[in-house]
Amino acid sequence: MSGIFISYAAEDRERAKMLAQALEQRGWPVWWDRKIPLGKSFDTVIEENLARAQCVLVLWTSASVESRWVRAEASEAAARDVLIPILLQPDVKLPLEFKLLQAANLADWNGDAEHPAFQALLSHIESMLKEAPPSAEEGGRSTETAASAVSVPPAAGPVNRSRIQAGGKALKRPKLRHAALFILLPTMVISATALALMGWRLPTRVQLDLVVDRMSFAVAGDQPVDFPAQPLKFRVLSIENYDQIRFIPERFTLGSSEDSSAAVTSRPGEVTLSGATDATPVLTIASADRQASAAGRLESIALTPGSEVTLQAANSGGPSLTVRVDGEDLSTNVLPMGTLDLSATGTSIVGGDRRASDANALLMRVTLPPHAPYLAVQGARRPFVVSATLDSTEPIALAVGVRIARTEFLKQGPAGAPETAVVAPGQIGYPDYPGIAAIALRTTDLVGVGDLREVSLSRLNLDPERGGLELRLEGVAGKIDIVSAGARRDHRLSLFDMLWHGTRTAVLFAILVWGASVSIGAYRLYREFASPP
Fold first, then answer.
1. Which of 152, 255, 280, 455 has the most C-beta neighbours closer than 10 Å?
2. Can you say how many angstroms the Cα of residue 467 is from the centroid of all Cα atoms in its chain?
């Protein structure tokens, strides 16, 4: 690996140089100066360094978002999961493919090493360049437990010297020690065992109820699942990274945004919109009737196991949902509810009175016939992104009983650092142990669950009123961390909790044995001191 690769537009070379020098001062190898050695081709050198990089920093500005090289390098880095986006301008409009990725905001950075966003960036880079040392938590806990479980012979109990001397007879010390053992040893053993059981936390079955405005998850199981669970009724729909969109119009008007006079009206056969291979194709669909409440419905997408899904909800001028899917081909249909206005970029068209038409931006007005009332969307590009402004004030079912392998509830904060995506109070419950009170979650809490086993999203709804995703997650988690007010707490149940609230008989039996042993020891001590000399 070659360390850090910086991707930037030529117009941003000076700021890229400042960043590279700041990173090199920390001793990190940085490849940024694109001077090509003699005998080497430009493409080959870049591809080699990009492929070897452990960390790829993409500097987004108004110039770099227009650069095909920067977009290509960013896509390659994202595919390898080594991408760190960096914003060098406050209002730069990112390509739709990268909008959902968290970015470091260095728009106001001038080289200050103490800048908060720069410090957060350094931490992120450091974690990618070197593997964190193995955690000693479990080893330390087991060593401590073993040490605390060792039985230490108790000291002899206090001796009443006046009784020893009474009548000229000495009280036998072994009898006192034996009696004391019946009290001290069981107390030490049961105390050490209780402490060990309280500190021994296990994977726990939980029921997590949350409302978030952003989440990601990986589909598990062995069967495809439909997402969303029901067609989405939309007012405006945007589809990015498609290969082809086919439809058979009954009436079709074609024109470009640059020359509206070029529009023609026809009754053609099949029309095919093909996404350009060297650009990111985007199609926006809206109703031609601006008074219409809805333009159409988006049918479900079949997600196969292993697909990575990121969802983002908002309620700004109406509920909206953005879905990004990695590791899955795009295949769905759009069913219009009237005449549609289509706007496409990075797209060529075949049909519609033109056997081949390629334009930077295409405008189309389409009316579909009853026998073929849909637009068929296909694509093998990854990731693809679908954004919809919805026409609903009622909760919309997105998923029911979807098995997942991992999930995350974080989003990018104003300074580029991750922050909680929780937008309403929630809770963590323990369905196997109804006697344990649920843990209340606040909107400021960072929620982390991991090491999932047999976990499913039993309910995932879009709540237009709160502009969030209302979900219930059920299953076994090996990690349940909540960071509240800067303090991290592990909310897995301990073995003591499980025994006390599950098989309480075993705990009561242990207490009974301890009580019996202590009673015997107390009785023996009484006999020793109460017996005549």
1. 455
2. 19
Does residue 144 share a domain with residue 76? no
Q: How far apart are CA 511 and CA 508, in angstroms?
A: 5
Residue span of the structural domain in which 335 resides: 230-392
Which residue type, as a one-letter code, is found at position 124? H
Q: Which of the listed residues 362, 392, 422 is the one where a domain comes to its end? A: 392
Residue 514 identity (one-letter amino acid): W
Q: Provide the pLDDT for residue 440.
A: 95
Residue 252 sits in the same domain as residue 382: yes
Q: Does 8 share its domain with 81?
A: yes
State pLDDT tens for residues 163-183: 434 333 444 455 556 656 666
Amino acid at 504: R
* In a shared domain, residues 104 and 150: no
Total number of domains in the chain: 4
pLDDT digits (tens, 9 = 90+) for 24-81: 998 899 988 766 666 566 778 888 888 989 999 999 999 999 988 899 999 998 989 8
Of 288, 295, 153, the C-alpha closest to 231 is 295
140 to each of 144, 145, 189, 491, 532, how far by Cα in Å?
6, 8, 20, 19, 52
Distance (Å, whole) CA 445 – CA 441: 6
